[in-house]
Amino acid sequence: MAECNSNCGSCSVEGCGDRTQAGPTTIEPNEQSNIKHVVGVVSGKGGVGKSLVTSLLASEMSKRGFKVAILDADVTGPSIPKAFGIANPLTADMSTGAIIPAQSQGGVKVVSTNLMLREDDMPVAWRGPVVSNVVKQFFNEVNWGDVDYMFVDMPPGTSDVLLTVFQSLPIDGIVTVSAPQELVAMIVGKAVNLAHSMDVDVLGLVENMAYYECDECGKRHHIFGEPQGEAVAAKYEIPAYATLPLDPNFARLCDEGKVEEYDVKDALDAIVDKIEAAGKKEDAE
Ligand SMILES: Nc1ncnc2c1ncn2[C@@H]1O[C@H](COP(=O)(O)OP(=O)(O)OP(=O)(O)O)[C@@H](O)[C@H]1O
Fold first, then answer.
1. What total number of domains does the chain contain?
2. Model confidence, pTM
3. Cα of 217 to ligand 1 centre, how many Å?
4. Does some domain include residue 261?
5. Any binding-site annotation on 44?
6. Which spans in the chain are helix H?
């Protein structure tokens, strides 16, 4: 076939006589869940602020009046519950056995392995395929109710969980997160290329810790080097780009479980607008 890339596992062309492996099958949410849109948040490298960006995007969409959820797919290093101040263990609906998501102060629904452990410092030493199955179960065995936008906080890197999410969840697109070091930008390229090779749209790039703004003189200092996200976004044809400052308030609010209280002003508008536009386009199709 003209469009064949010999990657049958990620190819969705139907009726191909040359197919050597099963193509991807998207899993459906259960009957109690109506999930309209799914957006992955991805970073090629750990510690660049992916969970923070997931939390802020979810909070911004919730402030815009949407019903929002976060599936914490960073199963072995989950940090979403803490950022939202959620500590109670998940409960189950006794009639169906389905897990009920926890809910933040602002109404964001959250499911995370850390809400299933007896103590939140217990390690989760699971192998990749187990983690991938847990992510699928979080998607289709949880009673999510009505959700306009579900954000999936991915583990860092281009691991098999990322492949599982790209292949199995009905994903609208991804937002990538980077920090301003050359190595990190190069690694963003890997995640973007993986998404492109699997026909997943890249909706935006957030360059985190792009600058530090002096509270006395207002001057912006590029502590980790000159931001390069704009050039990276142009290189990979990413349609929306935003920056976030290095701000001790982020770390403090995450530690205090009050991430929703952070006022990002209009810093993430370009990305949030793009997510909303992609959702509207999908609804219209
Ligand atoms: N812009 C920022 N300013 C200050 N602190 C930040 C900023 N971004 C992230 N942090 C802090 O850095 C730490 C790591 O952030 P976060 O957990 O979001 O990273 P991550 O990329 O999701 O990490 P991992 O790859 O391990 O999942 C957190 O304590 C967070 O509060």
1. 1
2. 0.89
3. 26
4. yes
5. yes
6. 50-63, 80-83, 128-140, 160-168, 182-197, 229-235, 248-256, 269-284
